[in-house]
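Box S1 | Example of a co-folding query
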Amino acid sequence: MKIANEIRNYQNVINGNRTHSSSGKQIDSIDPSTGKVWATIPSSTIEDAESAVAAARNAFEGWSSLSALVRADYLRKIGDLIVQHGEELAELETRDNGWVIRETSYGLIPSLASYWYDAAGATAAGSKGDTVQLGSSSVGYTLREPFGVIVGILPWNSPLFTFTVKAAYALAAGNTIILKPSELASVSSLRYGELINEILPPGTLNVVSGDGVEVGNTLVCHPSVSRVSLTGSGNTASAIAQSTARNPKPMTFELGGKSPNIIFEDADLEKAAQGVTLNGIFTGNAGQICVGGSRILIQRSIFDKMIMKMKEAITEHSKLGDPMHPESSMGPIANAIHYEKVCSYIELGKKEGGEIIIGGRHGGQSLLPDHPHLAEGFWVEPTLIKVTSNSLRICQEEVFGPVATVIPFDTEEEAINMANDTAYGLGAGVWTTNLNRAHRMIRKLESGNVWVNTYRTVGPELPFGGQKGSGYGVDSVLEFTREKTCYIEIG
Ligand code: NAD
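Box S1 (continued) | Returned holo structure for nicotinamide-adenine-dinucleotide
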């Protein structure tokens, strides 16, 4: 299907109904490839946030009373519905944040369905407790219970994926949920919520768009909300932790990264060159992925050879263009504010003494698309910056765009020290054919996820979370439950 060209107004989904903001105000959604308004979303109010909490609270008793098997049945039906509406959802995600259609339709949508099916299979585990014999006179056991109302706060770079991992497991465990997508990219989440509400009882899943401070803060601080799961920046995590400090509640924080991708001289260099550039950071979402391998560490003996191979891989395979076109492999920066930030980091890298090896342009041509209808879009070339010190700001701060630093190292120990020398700990890649070295590196890297001779793979079979400044907790069925302990005297 192709989305119609007229501007469509999307609405909140509260208590099973599509609703406008109580203020009547809308926020324009900008297509980042053209810089033009393509849809509007509600600019919701505190009142709207409170209505969503009330709806989720009312729905909780009914939803949590269902047996695990019945809940599983609902979740499987949602998985089927996602597949049926896959084309539409992929197009909305692509229009909303510029993530190329070849990835949203072939990679993202099937993976969303697989999370719903996995969550359906996890409903029983989410209600399973333990029994303990306490001598002959008493017995103890634990019950696993849902928390109640969950709030999921979403980032703009990956709305449908983050929506899914939060909603599927929160619902599997018997909670009800409110999702607050980013005011910079809410369309796909609002439509996703509408579709899911064709299946679920009213109020079980609600979606409210709007400003982070007004709507997001109201939701996370609301006394009827029992748990919060944020995917976003460290600043927002701090703001939420501070605003809930007087009435603390459990949190999952999935935050940013500054992930190292480390290439040893014994690696398959062809594979590594593509793995650390195209798959590691540039293609798909133009580096706007939390695990983007934004620091490329290369053993000195192969440094110059690898630079050549990486440049070749980028010029041959990164095709910047209309993200709706199936041949485009890299899209624009997702919004104007972030575009300015990414451009300023490229300038900072130069000012700090970094040498641009490829890219660095944002305006003009070279690797940038030259079609007139894309002229006002937020385009930045895939950019490699050679540096000599990992302590520069360009190596320490999250750029969250198609910008990676390249730095040489001599020994394994030096690579480990440099890789760990950051406030973050989300992802790390190791490229080597030496099995012992691979295992040593996995143990020593301070990172929630380590990939060896590959990068960026995620799936429902394994947990995904961060260490250090990249957050804590994972969105899984057990994390959306709490344990209750019971003692019974039988003597
Ligand atoms: P952000 O922190 O600016 O915003 C995230 C969400 O928080 C938005 O919905 C926003 O409206 C809301 N928000 C802002 N202030 C709030 C407040 N005081 N109370 C409640 N909600 C509030 O992040 P972003 O710019 O949208 O996303 C990019 C960041 O997300 C990057 O740092 C990226 O690495 C990270 N990210 C992490 C993962 C992961 O799994 N670890 C995945 C995707 C993105």
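DSSP finds 14 helices and 23 strands in the chain. The longest strand covers residues 138-146.
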